Amino acid sequence: FDSDDLSALKTGSMRVQVQKLAQKDVWQSNNQFDGTTVTKDSKVSKGDLTIKLGSGEALPISTENKSYNELVIEINKISGVQASIVENSTGGFSLSIKSTETGTANKITIGGGASTHFGFANVLEAKDMQLKADGVNYSSSSNTVTIDGLKITATKKGGDSTINIENDTTT
User: Fold this and answer.
1) Residue 115 CB contacts under 8 Å (≥ 6 apart), including other chains
2) 3-state secondary structure of 73
């Protein structure tokens, strides 16, 4: 925990219980490409892939005459989204698309005709951090929340913590 303004803090204690940590939205193609007959330089050519971040507009990306590597470059032009090729131990690969920020406001929606070619699965769902402080519910798209001037960063869920705020009388 931290405070930007120590004079704003009140002495006392606060009981904190973290129920959920904020996390990014992560999608991975279920279809594994073998790396031999279909390589990262092979042309996809399966129509449009649409990607929507949060409440933003669904952006179409044409896969026509684009390799898997080129498709990753195009997807990475979308602010708030990061794509990569994930290789396995046998030289095969899949496509991964994730939000760069945590929270439900950064949920990704994937569509378009090309999405069936990849068979995307949501392997990590976007979530907001949720905690209780002295019995009051708080939520944040990041893992940090400020309560009465005290900035609390959650690093693990579960458990029960008490934060004591005392005046420093040492000189």
Assistant:
1) 49, 50
2) helix
Place of tokens 């129509």: 47
Sign of torsion, CA 17 19 22 23? positive
Asked if the model's pLDDT at residue 19 lies above 70, the reply is yes
Q: Which residues lie below 8 Å from residue 51, measured CB to CB, with a gap of 6+? A: 58, 59, 61, 75, 78, 81, 97, 108, 109, 110
- Give the integer Cα–Cα distance in Å for 171 and 142: 37
| pLDDT value at residue 146 | 86
What is the value of pTM for the model shown? 0.84
DSSP state of 159: E
For residues 114 and 83, what is the distance between their CA atoms, to the nearest angstrom? 15
